[in-house]
Amino acid sequence: MTRFVLLAGGLTTHFAPSSDFPTWAALLACVVCAVSLLALIVEMRVRRSGRALVLVTGVVAVASLLLAVTRPVRIAARESRIGPRVIVLADASRSMDLQSTRGGTRKAARDQAIAALQASTKEARITVLGFGEGTPFPLSEGDAARPRSDLMSALVPVLKGEGETPQAVVVVSDGRLSEPESEKGLHPLIDGLNVPIHTIATAEESLPDATILHVGATGSAVAHVPLPLRVEVLCTGGLSCDKLTVTARELRASGAPTLLASGLADVSQGHGVVDLTITLDSFGPRIVEVALSAPAGDKIPENNRRFFTFNVARERLRVLHVAGRPTADVRALRQWLKSDASIDLVAFFILRTPTDDPRAPNEELALIPFPVDELFEQHLASFDAVILQDFEVAPYGLRPHLPRLANYVKERGGGLIMVGGPASFVSGGYARTPLADVLPVKLDGVPGHTKEDLAKFTPDWTDVGRTAPILAPLRKATNDEFPQVEGVNVVGDLAEHATALLTHPTRLTPSGAKMPVLAVGEVGAGRSIALAIDGAWELEYSPLGSRTQGRGYAALWDGLLGWLMRDPRYEPAQLSLPAGCTVGTKTRLRLKAVSGMKPEGTKLTLKRLDEEAAVIVVPIDQKADLLSGVDIDLPALAEGGYTAKVGFGTGPSTSLDFACEAGGDEWADPRPDVQRLRDIAKETHGDFAFAWDASKLALPSPTVVSAERHVVPVAPAWGWSLLAAAALGAHWFIRRRRGFG
Amino acid sequence: MRRIAAISLAVLVVTLLVLAVPRPARAFGDRGAFDARVLLAGGTTGAARPTAPLRWAHELVMRTSAPARSRPTSVRADDGEIVSGPFLYWSGDVALTPLSSAEVSGLRRFFALGGLLVVDDAGVNFDGEKSEFGKTARAQIARVLPDSAIIQIGPEHVIFKSFYLLHRAEGRVQGPRTLDAIVRGGNVQVIFTNHDLGGALAQGPTGVWEFPVVPGGEAQRDHAVRLAVNIAMYLLCSNYKDDQVHAPFLIRRRSRVRESEP
Fold this sequence. Notes:
The structure holds 2 protein chains of 2 kinds. Helix content of chain A is 23%, strand content 31%. The N terminus of chain A is likely disordered. Chain B is 37% helix and 13% strand. Chain B starts with a helix and ends with a helix. Chain B has 7 helices and 7 strands. The longest helix of chain B has 21 residues. Chain B is globular. By secondary structure, chain B is α/β, with parallel strands linked by helices. About 4% of the residues of chain B have low confidence. The chains are: A alpha+beta, B alpha/beta.
């Protein structure tokens, strides 16, 4: 019903039918009046004279009758117009940084569209929020772009949260949404709410670009097992592509990346696929770069290569155990290794030296040649760890392979353990060899230097040894005891990045420190352990071993091999990147230390995988509660692979390899998805517009709210009735005088 | 002249004797070397063939890379030191007295750690028939390991290929082709020989074998020494020769030896 609104002294006044008059009755009265007037007009067309006065009185009579029925009242109210609440969700993901074909970025188009929308609807209460990950956030200049564009997570608090439900939602985006996967996914949110979602597209089409659209792996990555990769490439924006070369390379802690596979993708209608098979030899997080050679005219080079972190599992831990002679220590280690079903053990023991006389022809011996060349030339990379136990370099042809073995640790991330004995360390001829460089202890190769100390002793726990998780199982099993052992290989000071866990009670190193008996160290990408005694077996066969049911020996090796293989249980801390790393976005590293690790002296460093130098030290709050976990903001990182390494004073360290991408998921497909925005609008009864037409978007009307209300009848009911009767009487009288029936 | 010759002869004898003494293991690592530790239990006061452990160590060092204690030790079953090494050698030729509870307990602790016991019947007759020692030793071991059955192990077992490829067990007497054993969790815990292995190894200070070996003579003695070496190598290497990497070599050699056999 039409309302007439007047403004008076802050109050608005308008007229309305009597409140006891139902709307349907008012409508019926209007219809009856209209019919009466129509009949009157028809009647006037038939007559030729005296029509004007009859018509006037007829109209007056009908109007009077209508007023008598509706009995109008005057309503004076303090009213306000409340503009519709409109939430504008602005895509804050990285894809908005892509250039638009109309010039400028999609982000700029987004901001212009929002400004136009605000200008076109002054009354609407527009709140602009950004969306990317999780709940929406106030959009402000200088915000780092989000790595995702999750519309669903943004809509949930907007539509289902507490507070006023908006009357409309406007999504300003390029349509490359992480969530929902389809517009149908919005139904659980919008059903029953009657809130339209309008959409504004910030771009129409992509720039000319060749990109790695998707890389899929069949199954999970397992060390030494070929892993098929399916690489999808895309050519958009009219870029001419025919064949694209795609390569897969593994980034390494030092040295150039290793080419794993390459292939040609035939591009048809802008889309191509190539299947590559890669084999990763080392377990744990391995970073693989997949790159394409883009043709000329490619406008977005950032998405020509992607980095993927494969968490390479292992079917079984593959260990090479080489022993120079069989002893009780060799027996104990072999039995422990064989007792673990998760270990694939390859063992070679020297059972006969050149000076031994077995007094039998070779055919009657169960001996095989030690395949030293085959092992260290062909199969070394297939092992996760190598144990050299009491094994002398010279007689068995190991010397030529020491550089390869050192490289296996330093660059391929292999694990190495040297176990003591008369043919180990300096006595075994390892001093001044490449292998000495990857041991956690220095070896003095000066002739005449004492190589062995034959005295009995009980090793001392170092401060780190008492707290490090690596020895936690042993400490628990033996209640911090260690049996007396006989003899030790004399070794030097700790190497760089090495930690002593057990030391000799009396022997000192050249620097005056207690001589390490058990030391662990990080060497490049790998780890190494030096156990300078051959009496660890007495953790099993000794009164202490008997009291502890021999558990100490297994506990020692559980920790040593577990730490060597980066088993999280034996790491001093856990490092993770909850949101990954993308160039231009904030990268946050989460550090959580295990019990016993002290924050004092904690040092976090960052190093690019492909550069020897350029170690970045990241400051850490030394009073932070590392046990509960802290988030550390990393400095801005360029594209590439990195190692984050955290050390606790002189204790063992732990590291995390990760990659920072320039393009990332958000730039993998640079095509705007206009159709998706159209579909979302259609599905939710909203409208769609391009950014440059944003002002044309129709937003809901304001709502009028009355605060103070006075209702006064315009005239008493009897007055309206009298007026109607008089008007009807006058009309009847005139009709009669003019000769109307 | 005669005096010089006598002195020379004496020097030669002394030199030979010195050389005849087992080459000691390098001092560093001696504790982990093979120790043919004599078990004193059930009334035994030493090995039935006292020189056998030393000869065993000597032959092991001469023939293989394995180190051995230059002075094999002995230990009482009720001594706490019984758990200080993974090997025990128990020999005798007369009936044993029942093990005391302390001895049973000591042996159980030894076996719990995975130790290996060789029970060598020195009183076995030429047919390999068990002596009273052999019978009572089995009975006493049954008390120590009540849930374990004695089985026969032959040439397919890793003990028969841990260093030498052996086709049968032999000692001072030829005895049965197989050894009796108690195997738990894939590991041999007790070996019973019905061959008087110690009798074949026993050698006097002058280098003279103490007992004749029948019926095979010196060839059989060498086979007995090989068996002793294999047992020691099994102790120190465990089932190393069962590793897959050795399989093709060993199959080839065994078939070659079989082809050459008459």
